[in-house]
Design a protein that fits this description.
PDZ domain-containing protein; 6-stranded antiparallel β-sheet; PDZ_sf; 6-stranded mixed barrel; Retropepsin-like_bacterial; Cathepsin D, subunit A, domain 1; 3 domains; Pdz3 Domain; 6 helices; mainly beta; 29 strands; 416 residues; Peptidase_aspartic_dom_sf; 8% helix
């Protein structure tokens, strides 16, 4: 099932403690540009990063956050990170207390690009567990610092980033359309038009969020004009630092960025959280996530306050949502194991009898060791009427010694 990853992280101003170095990301060689390959899982940008010479681990490149974040203090300790202060953060539900340490002046190695004098916000506990919904281990996030000095071109089709020298790319490349880019609290915003199912067109200020695995997201609390269509699904939307986020999934008629038009876009309408006031104060109505961004080629030019967009290879691929009713997750271990995270009420999966916490042994008689989580997500939303066979193991005790295996055949059906 398609996962929506919402990183509702309270922004703290991290004091830079480097006296002789300018914090930022720079090319190691004096070139006009360098190429940084990445791995795309559900259009999320994943790159290996070495911290202070340690073994590389996977990070997300995320425009939606200000601070660099490391999800595991145990990993930070193993890398020998030094900490200067401890912070008490608040989760998205307003009640969860999340402790983090600040580690200043670190060296981040991304191959052809290096991060100089980089601070890290190190979580004492990994509340997000992104591996369970992305399918590959994710140990942290690189945010605003990556973009602040240099034009960055993101090519989702070829899974590569072109990182340009500061001052390069002065002219708009052919076939790209330009939007003014507003940087507020280290986050990028553009204006776009959104036509809702009721016919009303919104002039929407939207966050560009490469770290969120949704198409369009609209926050109802930001405008009385935002209306959830009658045809919608109540569902689990994703994970935040404060726990699971819930809301509705529906469609809008179209989203327009200048002349570039995406139609029947899958749209998330999250419930209000303790951070809703921050969203309202920013003036934004929502965000553009990786499901939209991944269909285009994008240039984010923070220094010149502009964003450039061009159609990608998948621009006209229709938007589809999970047709099974299953949320399939990966157990965060070295061994590949999938399990059922949730079953949507009234869905084909519920009708078939599959249950939450069933361990998936095979899909269409192919062992889970052969599957990637992104492939399972794609399978469950690609063809209405297709029958997908799940072999699952249901445990009856906490020691996982009492169990029974079941086989379920689920006929995929559009619900939205």
């Amino acid at each position: 099932m398609k996962r929506f990853l919402f990183l509702f992280i309270l922004i703290y101003s991290i004091a830079w403690e480097a006296q002789s170095q300018i914090p930022g990301f720079f090319m190691k060689e004096d070139k006009r540009r360098v190429i940084l390959p990445f791995y795309a899982s559900n259009s999320l940008i994943i790159v290996p990063v070495s911290i202070n010479g340690a073994y590389p681990v996977n990070f997300l490149i995320d425009t939606g956050v200000r601070s660099n974040i490391l999800f595991s203090k145990d990993l930070g300790d193993a890398m020998g990170l030094k900490y200067t202060r401890r912070l008490n953060l608040m989760g998205a539900d307003g009640s969860e207390q999340i402790m983090a340490q600040v580690s200043p002046v670190n060296y981040l190695d991304l191959g052809p690009i290096e991060g100089i004098a980089q601070s890290l916000l190190v979580l004492e506990e990994d509340f997000l567990e992104l591996e369970s919904v992305v399918g590959v281990p994710i140990y942290g996030i690189i945010g605003y610092e990556f973009f602040k000095f240099n034009p960055v071109k993101i090519n989702y089709d070829d899974e590569r980033i072109e990182f340009f020298r500061e001052g390069a790319l002065k002219w708009r490349p052919p076939f790209y359309t330009k939007k003014d880019l507003s940087i507020q609290s280290s986050k990028p915003y553009i204006s776009a038009k959104v036509k809702q199912r009721n016919g009303e067109v919104l002039d929407a200020k939207l966050l560009i969020d490469t770290g969120a695995n949704h198409g369009l997201l609209l926050n109802q609390e930001t405008s009385e004009k935002i209306e959830i269509p009658d045809l919608n699904l109540e569902t689990e939307l994703g994970q935040s630092l404060g726990g699971t986020l819930y809301g509705n999934i529906a469609r809008v008629d179209w989203v327009k960025i200048n002349h570039l038009t995406q139609r029947d876009v899958m749209t998330s309408y999250p419930e209000e959280t303790a951070f809703s006031y921050i969203i309202q104060e920013s003036g934004r109505l929502g965000s553009l996530g990786s499901e939209i961004l991944g269909r285009m080629r994008i240039i984010l030019d923070y220094p010149r306050e502009r964003a450039l967009f061009k159609k990608g290879d998948t621009f006209y691929v229709p938007y589809e949502y999970d047709m099974s009713g299953l949320t399939v997750k990966k157990v965060p271990t070295d061994k590949k194991r999938f399990y059922i995270g949730s079953v949507r009420k009234g869905s084909p999966a519920e009708e078939a009898g599959i249950l939450p916490f069933d361990e998936v042994l095979s899909i269409n008689k192919i062992p889970v060791l052969i599957w990637e989580l992104a492939e399972v997500v794609k399978l469950l939303r690609e063809e209405e009427g297709k029958v997908v066979e799940f072999e699952v193991r249901r445990y009856f005790d906490d020691t996982l010694t009492k169990y029974e295996d079941f086989t379920y055949r689920i006929e995929l059906r559009k619900q939205i």
